[in-house]
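Re-run with default settings, no changes from the original entry. Doing this only to confirm the output is reproducible before filing.
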Amino acid sequence: MSENLFSKKKIFFNQTIGKKEVKNVIAWAFTSYGAARTAYLVEQLKDLGFHYATKAGISLSVEDLLIPPLKDSLLKTAENEIKSTQNRYLLGEITEVERFQKVIDIWHRTSETLKDEVVDYFKLTDPLNSLYMMSFSGARGNLSQVHQLVGMRGLMADPQGEIIDFPIKSNFKEGLTTTEYLISSYGARKGVVDTALRTADSGYLTRRLVDIAQEVIIREIDCETHNGVILSSLKENGKLLIPLKDRLVGRVLLQNIYHPKTHCLIAQKNESISVLLAEDIVKSGIKEVWVRSPLTCKATRSVCQYCYGWNLAHGRLVELGEAVGIIAAQSIGEPGTQLTMRTFHTGGVFTAEIAKQINAPFPGKIFYQTNMIFREIRTRYGDNAWWVENTAKLRLEGENGKRISFNLTQGSIIRIKDKSWVETDDLLAEIATTTPSNRRAKEKTTRDLRTDIAGEVYFQNLEIDEGGGQVDTAGGSIWILAGDVYNLSANFDVILKNGDFIINGSVLARTQFISRYGGIVKIIDETLNVEVIPASLHIQNATISLEKTDQIDKYCLKFENNDSFELKIQNNTQLKNGQVIAERYLTTEMGGIIRYAGLDGKINKIGYEIQKPGSLLWIPEETHEVNTEFKTVLVKNGQYIPAGTQLLKNKKIKNQHSGIVELVHKKNFIMEIIIKPGIVLKVKNNVSFSKKMKRFIQPGEYLFSKFVVEDLRYLDYLLTPTGPILLLRPVVEYKVESPKTIITDKKNIISIISSQYILYKDGERIKSVQGIELFKIQLKLQIKKHFKYLPIKINFIPSKTNSLDFELEFLMIEAILPKNDKYFDSTTLLPLATAQIKILVKNNQLVKKGELIAQIEIISTSQGEIRWLGNNLKQTRRLLLITANQILTIPLKNLEKLLKKTNLNLGNFIRTDQNLIENTRIPHSGQIIEITSTYIRIRISRPYLISARAIIRVVTGDLLQSGESLALLVFERAKTGDIIQGLPRIEELLEARKPKDNSVLSTHPGFINLYYSETIDLKIESLYKLSTVLELQPGVFPIVSKNQFIEAGSSLSEGDVNVHDILDIFFNLYFRSRVNPLSLADAIHLSLQKIQIFLVSEVQSVYQSQGIDISDKHIEIIIKQMTGKVKVEEGGDTTLLPNELIEFQQIEKMNEKFSLTKGQLALYTPILLGITKSSLNTESFISAASFQETTRVLAKAAVEGKIDQLRGLKENVIIGNLIPAGTGFSAYSETTSVLNEDLKSIEVKTSSINSDIQNDTNSNLDDIILNKD
């Protein structure tokens, strides 16, 4: 290894170099020879790769995709297994859930076997195959993709995440069928969506991690701590995840290491562990090593060089000022996108718990060990098995004295009953490799059970809780007794009785239609649509004509008195009561003032609807809204101007009517120019005026005793520069009427009424130059109260006088036979029956109220026995017909002998696996309905096994169509790796969330005793003469055995571990429960250390499951930040308040000071904060406010008068300072332990560090660039 890379003596690696090996070679070169030489080696490797890649000319063709010949036989075996499982399901031996899980597992196992076969076939037949070389060298592709190309695509998930039990047997070379393509498209879309979500989640995780760790900077060389952590190989359920060697590299030793056998010194305290040293330690047989760790570093709000160890970028001790917190956050957050987010259930195949199967090596008899403790269970496939609760042996005794024993661990499952005979290769047991882990959590889920056949429901041995509709115990069945089921609407009357026998063409049910109103019958032949016309209205004194204008064509309704209305309805449409038929507006010449005379109206959406008749008075005036300066106006106040006079300079605005000018001004601007038509009266200056003078002057009235008014006028006055003037303004009077009927039919059922609406309120002034719509008249449809819910159809009838015009006709319609199939669903009737419609009246016939018009009959197309079990209260009733197809006759001999052997009674159920006749199987399960001397007759039936806790959705006697739901099966399934791994799991750990299904944890170490009753009680008897009884809830099973010794915090039942519970348990154990309790600070140190180690291993196991390597130190830095605070219980003589969160080191120092003055110390408990909460509770309020809840954080900081010391990176970036890391570290004025020492000690320390570095093989002096020669 230490040979020069460019010496004449070459180093030769005689092995296949794939992607992984290339990584290892480069890492070895970098560690041994430095960056420059490694760069040269990488160049050489690149040249070598391109040279031989060019020579090889590797390409990919269809012929390179080799499908293993064993595939067909594997698929055939799987299909036979599934056929057997399906037969068991049809017999009612297993539930739908058990069938589903078995099918899923069979296909998953087949797919995995085929995957292995693909690899073996390539190795055996064509090891230089392009596809094989590309995927297995790591150049491109992976085993999963190769498997899809030449194996089978396997099982896919539906959009809800459930596995579809229809596998894709084809591969991409063979091509997918249409069904397979559609199923696989779910997964493709899910993959795209997952990638987008994963990117966002991963980015947010990184942001939170950076926020919590950004202040962690290397600020000291050595914190001189005496604490550390024990490192060993990381294992999970017996599987090695990270070997000890990999965990040791880059760490610094806490104490000297001696060889366990020779006792020679291997390494010294505070020595950094290189790859060579790590190998030596592992070779010596040492399994656990004490190393320094960021978790136990004493440095305040930072980590020292020795506790951190190497900077993994260059393989040397980390430098002062390195922002290791940011590096840690990015190291954990960056691989987040590679973690799977898939949460669907794989069927629990190959769970880590059941790893080894024992098969019988020879035929023989099975014997259980006498002290074996076991309980009977039902496996996930519906088989009976026995769960072993303690370590025991299983013995197989064969012929000729052959004997063999098998060791069973706790949690193993025996598949054969005691003293049973087995054949060679029979499955005897499944051995759990370790004690079942608490990680094997379970979750409750449901599956819908639907019937495959139509028929009648029958319950067998079902115990149902009346309150919740749940099944109390397992073992019962729901039978469906076959029959043809007819869906009938509640409108149909069944004309048969139970037990009636019908033939083809018999009438089953009938519904009749009568007329509720009477009238003229209209039959539309094409659709057999029957209508009765109770009333009609034909308007003969008005015609409809088409008026064409430049803008739009419209229909107008013209009456004989020349009143014209715009039509608002269309031909062949249906109208309802109160609908507008036509309308017209009354339009004025210009704007003006509106006044009511004797009118009364109520306001609505349109305007004021007239309730009391009267007059509408209109005073016309022309208003120009100009908003201009005085100097631009060409007319004066009080001036009379003829029509067409220009009003403004530079603008062509002219008045359209003659009259007196009134200027309305605001400050120096003219807002409006009003032209008021009328007669001007000059008056003397001594006449006084008031607002009361403004009034209406009636015709014939004398004004000033001289002037007679001939028509209705409005007296107005104006103030002009020359003096006041009186103006007699014209008034237009409109007579307004209340709603009235203008036309009605002979029976007074259909009427047309006229309603008038004024569009403006009394006294309103309407500013306009053009004419306005003053009020409108609407013609509305009015129907008599008793008939108002019937629709009215409108028809345009050609006029007899003018071929271009039309006349209006209104027809009231009572629909007898609707166009849609409201009364029956033809899809459920055919091919069982047909519907026949009979019309009992003729077209244009006059019918009376209550007369029968038509009827629909349901005609049977088969023959059989009627069973009507319909419910009159239901919307849809059902009729059951038992035909010859549902009856099976089985001929028998020696019936009396058979009756003695079997329980053949009327009403009993028999299944297809019962051998009534020798060597003959019954083709169908069923219920015995007849027994004679020569045969028995059964009604074909189908059993469905129901599991406990299922929710039943039917009752005995219900009639069901095929595909309808029987029950909701509730079951537990093991959460597989797919569910608990990945980004969601990382978030759950780092946010310290409490799991849904908690595992029961032991409160102290001791021996276990189990007591079974309705619940399971666990008694833990401790060495400290303590005993605790823990009760397990129903459905929760223990994962420990009797007399087993367990540690504190161990899982006693299945479920997820709550980290907060572990912390509480250990703190209580160390501080409160012990005979000799530890000090508060030591108890917190130890209890925090327990959960720190637990969290590190949990996070590592998630990343390792996805093949991602992250150094422990990165995770440790994050977890140190999560566990750095405590919660104050009692403040003592300090200024702290209860429930306040404070740094652990800070409160320790405070208590030390108070202990010297003999003051009352603060009491506190350990607390675990998630990364979000920890970020918000940081010392720096600037950093916390820039993360989340800005207003709350800043308000709280202001109230408390906080001071930010600007220790971290974020707060300095926000303020605009130099960051205290890297080159900015020396400018940082924080007092550290390094700065407290004198200059000499610093020189000594730094020189010792430098000497270590110079002696290291990574010397910078050797790292020079060499030429090829």
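The radius of gyration is 48 Å. The chain has a mean pLDDT of 82.
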